[in-house]
Amino acid sequence: MAQGHEVADKWEVQLRKGCLELAILASLWGGRLYGLELLRVLEHESDLVITEGTVYPLLSRLRSEDLLDAEWVEAELGHPRKYYRLTPAGRRRVVAMARTWSRFSAKLDHLLRAVPKEEG
Length: 120
Prior knowledge:
The protein has 120 residues and is mainly alpha-helical. It has helices at 2-27, 35-46, 52-64, 88-112, and strands spanning 33-34, 68-73, 81-86. The protein has 4 helices and 3 strands, in the order αβααββα.
């Protein structure tokens, strides 16, 4: 039984990784966020608990793909913060990804109706 649980855990990890880019882009829809703020939004709004070591390379890649802009802003207290925001290309990408996700999840939800919520 423990092995079945381990396989399910690995599947959930992969599912969450696959959704991470969409979640980051969607989190930035409402405006700019700095890195730690983005991590908090992801955790609070989607239960995606990720590390700085995971999010910053992804933010860097999204910047290199021209989906995000970044700027350093002086903080009133403490050190400057790097804020990220969607570019026009990033806004188009997240809209397209959201549309694909909605179609996919609706079809999967339909398929899952036959599966009981609990075993037994």
